[in-house]
Amino acid sequence: MISIQNVSKWYGDFQVLSDCSTQVAKGEVVVVCGPSGSGKSTLIKCVNALEPIQKGDIVVDGTSIADPGTNLPKLRSRVGMVFQHFELFPHLTITENLTIAQLKVLGRGKEEAREKGLALLDRVGLKAHAHKHPGQLSGGQQQRVAIARALAMDPVVMLFDEPTSALDPEMVNEVLDVMVQLAQEGMTMMCVTHEMGFARKVADRVIFMDRGQIVEDCAKGEFFGDLNGRSERAQQFLAKILTH
Fold it and tell me: What's the pLDDT tens digit per position in 2-32?
């Protein structure tokens, strides 16, 4: 579903991604982790061309993002993206947030878009809040709305960029529960997260990044089960993150 081939990226003289390659199969859940500044979020934003790449290629469901002929808005409409900070429209109601892209991008009718939006709100446990504005909801609720909004576009893959890092600890689980449910339903997912409990529960594979490189790319059982087989940098990371 996603093929990342020898991808490198620079900000001016600073190389933020260095020769990154990996694959994500249909229905697979891949967790991307690593220290701050390792390039995780940049990599995931490159998958739907929110960040341009200077070298290599990324192919999503048969479409190359590096091909000048690719219709990037059309591609992005099929790749669900959930950000750290919910990015909801504050002046629109929750229902309007869920229907606007369906109407403008997919060309759905008003009633069909509304029905779809309300069904997805129900799925994330927030149907009773359909009439409210984002500012009236908690952070965890807003992030669940953001997930529902991404799902309303019928994506072939879902990308999550640290979806719980801006939340109060009490709200983290309500968002992770929705993500676990999605994974169990077979959604192809690529998630940048520090939530190792989530990774252990649903990830098929774990990618560990450091200084713009993919240092580890292995099955979940191997990543967490054989610490001695991990790189020194991954061992240091896991020692810090798993002891708390």
Answer: 999 999 999 999 999 999 999 999 999 999 9
Q: Which residue matches tokens 């009773």?
A: 128
What predicted TM-score, i.e. pTM, was given to this entire model?
0.93
Q: What is the pLDDT of residues 28-51, one digit of tens each?
A: 999 999 998 999 999 999 999 999
Q: Within this chain, do residues 129 and 189 fall inside the same structural domain, yes or no?
A: no
Q: Which candidate, 202, 204, 200, 189, places its Cα nearest to that of 241?
A: 200
- CA atoms of 126 and 92, how far apart (whole Å): 16
Confidence at residue 238, expressed as pLDDT on a 0 to 100 scale: 86
| 3-class SS letters over 8-44 | EEEECCEEEEEEEEEEECCCCEEEEECCCCCCHHHHH
Q: What angle do CA 148, 183, 235 make, to 5 degrees?
A: 120
Q: Both 74 and 169 in a single domain?
A: yes
Whether residues 58 and 175 share a domain: the answer is: yes
Q: How far apart (Å, rounded) are the C-alpha atoms in residues 102 and 96?
A: 10
Residues 174 and 59 occupy one common structural domain: yes
Domain ranges, residue 95 = 87-154
Tell whether 164 and 149 lie within a shared domain: no
Same domain as 174, residue 147:
no
Average pLDDT of the residues of the chain: 93
Q: What angle separates helix 139-151 from helix 169-184, to the nearest 10 degrees?
A: 20
Domain count, the chain: 2
pLDDT at position 114 is 96
